[in-house]
Structure formats: C-alpha cells, structure tokens
Amino acid sequence: AKEFGVSAKEFGVSAKEFGASAKEFGVSAKKFGVPAKEFRGSIPKSV
C-alpha cells in the first residue's frame, strides 16, 4: 500500500472526476450485491 502511495495521489484527481460515475454504478452494484458476495467467497485467501 505504501508503494502505491505516490500513484494514489496522482490518481486523486481522476478519482474525483469519476466520482459521478461511481454514484451511477452504485445502483448496479446493489443489484449485483448477492452475486458479488458469492464470488467473493470463491476468491482464494492467498490473493
């Protein structure tokens, strides 16, 4: 996480620009809520 610190700051502006888009995808995220949980359980903990 520390290694990506600089990159995170560089993407700070972009993150704000995508803020509106993130909200638009908020509803879709909720619709896929159950599948997301099911998929999350299939992810190896080693990742």
From TrEMBL:
Top-level taxon of the source organism: Bacteria
Organism: Sphingobacterium wenxiniae
Protein name: Uncharacterized protein
